[in-house]
UniProtKB/TrEMBL annotation:
<protein>
    <submittedName>
        <fullName>CDP-alcohol phosphatidyltransferase family protein</fullName>
    </submittedName>
</protein>
<keyword id="KW-0472">Membrane</keyword>
<dbReference type="InterPro" id="IPR000462">
    <property type="entry name" value="CDP-OH_P_trans"/>
</dbReference>
<dbReference type="Pfam" id="PF01066">
    <property type="entry name" value="CDP-OH_P_transf"/>
</dbReference>
<dbReference type="InterPro" id="IPR048254">
    <property type="entry name" value="CDP_ALCOHOL_P_TRANSF_CS"/>
</dbReference>
<dbReference type="InterPro" id="IPR043130">
    <property type="entry name" value="CDP-OH_PTrfase_TM_dom"/>
</dbReference>
<dbReference type="GO" id="GO:0016780">
    <property type="term" value="F:phosphotransferase activity, for other substituted phosphate groups"/>
</dbReference>
<keyword id="KW-1133">Transmembrane helix</keyword>
<dbReference type="GO" id="GO:0016020">
    <property type="term" value="C:membrane"/>
</dbReference>
<feature type="transmembrane region" description="Helical">
    <location>
        <begin position="198"/>
        <end position="218"/>
    </location>
</feature>
<keyword id="KW-0808">Transferase</keyword>
<feature type="transmembrane region" description="Helical">
    <location>
        <begin position="40"/>
        <end position="58"/>
    </location>
</feature>
<feature type="transmembrane region" description="Helical">
    <location>
        <begin position="172"/>
        <end position="192"/>
    </location>
</feature>
<dbReference type="GO" id="GO:0008654">
    <property type="term" value="P:phospholipid biosynthetic process"/>
</dbReference>
<feature type="transmembrane region" description="Helical">
    <location>
        <begin position="129"/>
        <end position="151"/>
    </location>
</feature>
<comment type="similarity">
    <text>Belongs to the CDP-alcohol phosphatidyltransferase class-I family.</text>
</comment>
<keyword id="KW-0812">Transmembrane</keyword>
Length: 230
């Protein structure tokens, strides 16, 4: 399973030391159970959307906080497991990658929509303008996700291999990326038992995502602009 890992470059400490090792265990279990990577992707979606549904339909409490976090965290670990399983079984395919990304995009959109519904149904907000926070967060998160995917796909595949060996992944960068790691974001739902604390933490992460979005967009556009057409 260690040989079925992606590179650690551009990955936060949470994904590197928590989510990927958890996904490795789940991928091994799925391999022994005879599951396909696409089946693991769908199981991941089932956990994630169960958490989304609970968030939208149930009044916030500490019990709900634990349940939502657990469902989202397991779904995220399974999201890592499907790719590891595909590489282990040598079954990586465009269709599997497409399904994985579609589920990820739907999960991001639905999760922030569920926060909006919960805010509207259950929260005593300071004003109606706070309902715009989940909408803004949803847009920022989706732009970071899709912008990163597109930037990676549009870069020439052989560019990095032509020069010297790639340097080891930066630990400082891995720490800096923690605020925009999906696993860290899932942890904010552990605060659902307190409306004020959750609202403050969710809003703070929204602001951080907007700042990272601006930085990422500038970086990706600069890198793609530097590519000379063949």
């Amino acid at each position: 399973m260690r040989g079925a890992q992606k590179t650690a470059k551009g990955v936060s400490l949470y994904s590197r030391y928590v989510n990927r090792p958890a996904g490795r265990i789940l991928a091994a279990a799925a391999y022994r159970a005879g599951l396909t990577p696409n089946q693991v992707t769908l199981i991941s979606a089932a956990f994630s959307f169960a958490g989304v549904a609970a968030l939208a339909l149930v009044r916030p409490s500490w019990g709900l906080a634990a349940a939502v976090w657990a469902a989202l965290a397991v779904g995220f670990a399974l999201d890592s497991a499907d790719g590891q399983l595909a590489r282990l079984r040598k079954e990586s395919s465009p269709a599997g990658e497409w399904l994985d990304h579609v589920v990820d995009a739907a999960k991001i959109a639905a999760l922030h929509a569920a926060v909006l519904i919960s805010f509207h149904r259950f929260f005593d907000l300071p004003g109606p303008g706070w309902l715009l926070v989940p909408l803004g967060f949803q847009s920022a998160a989706l732009l970071i996700f899709t912008g990163g995917l597109l930037a990676d796909k549009l870069k020439p595949r052989g560019a990095a291999a032509a020069g010297a060996p790639a340097p080891p992944p930066s630990r400082l960068r891995a720490v800096a990326l923690l605020p925009v790691d999906y696993g860290v974001f899932c942890s904010v739902f552990l605060l659902l038992g307190s409306e004020r604390v959750f609202l403050a933490a969710y809003t703070a992460l929204f602001v951080v995502h907007v700042l990272f979005l601006v930085a990422f967009m500038a970086k990706w556009f600069r890198e793609l602009t530097a590519i000379r057409p063949v």
